[in-house]
Amino acid sequence: MTAVLQIGDRALSSEQIIPRLASYQMLPQLYRESIIDEAIAPISCTQAEIADACEQFYEQNQLIDEKARDLWLHHQGMNRDFLETVFIPRLLKIEKFKYQTWNHKLDTYFLQRKRSLDRAIYSLMRLRLNNAEIAREFYFRIQEREQSFAELARQYSQGPESQVDGIIGPIELGNLHPQVAQILAISKPGQLWHPIPIEGWLLIIRLERLIPAQLDVAMRQRLLRELFEKWVQSQLASIAQIQGEAYACRQATPTDINPEIYCRYYYPNASLLQVSTTATNNTISTVNLQPQIKADKRR
Asked: Where are the alpha helices (DSSP H) in the chain?
């Protein structure tokens, strides 16, 4: 056995690594990183860009002095050369890929996402549904300014907001119950709502402040990450579908028919796979990622 990976006293061969990755549920991550590697392969970086990226990496990870860097490298199983010539340049290529692929779409995507990205600060009091009369009484007390929202929420609200005088936020509308988000999105500051039944509770809500989302540098980075992640997940879903078709193909292929011909006729996506006619026990051969990546780029 030729060892390709040494872990303590154990030496693993190439034949042992893939089954172990599968048993550790790490194959999806391997697929993911392979997809990314194919996508960023054409991207180049200058030495100046790499040097800047290294400095930013050290600063962001608080690896300012040599001792901290050496300790980090030891924990990650890397050496300095690998970090600065492979690991960090790969991160840089990923960032450049995101920018080149989606930066021109950010304005439109931001407008699509803006409502869920807006943040709200609001007052909340919740009571059980069987306390409808009490909820209405509290609503009118607040409306008539007989008692403050904070005082009533602190004394009577039946949720964790009672610990903070009923004040919630700032929180993105996309992270709230859809009905609550809708109410806040159409409210004016100071607007008080009658008790609203939502999922077993009666909610009294008052918008304090709505903070519109801005397409600043941080938001652009966040949206680029979102679009990149959506793309990666779509690629993984395509691979899963192809693997499923390949498995179905091998299960369904009659024994007296060439499986490669049968698969290509009934399962067109199987042409993206290396279909082995000698496979046993209905195993699936390795996915050829390259054709799928190219097909996606043409779209």
From this structure: 14-23, 27-40, 47-60, 66-76, 80-82, 88-102, 106-117, 132-143, 149-156, 178-185, 217-252, 259-266, 289-298
The count of structural domains within the chain is 4
Per residue in 47-82, is it b (16+ CB within 10 Å) or e — as a string? eeebeebbeebbeeeebeeeeeeeeebeeeeeeeee
79 lies in the same domain as 124: no
- Domain range for 156 is 119-211
What does the DSSP 8-state code read for residue 119? E
Interval 230-264: pLDDT, tens? 999 999 988 877 777 666 666 665 555 555 555 55
Q: Over the stretch 18-52, which tens digit does the pLDDT of each residue have?
A: 888 889 999 889 999 999 999 999 999 999 999 99
pTM: 0.78
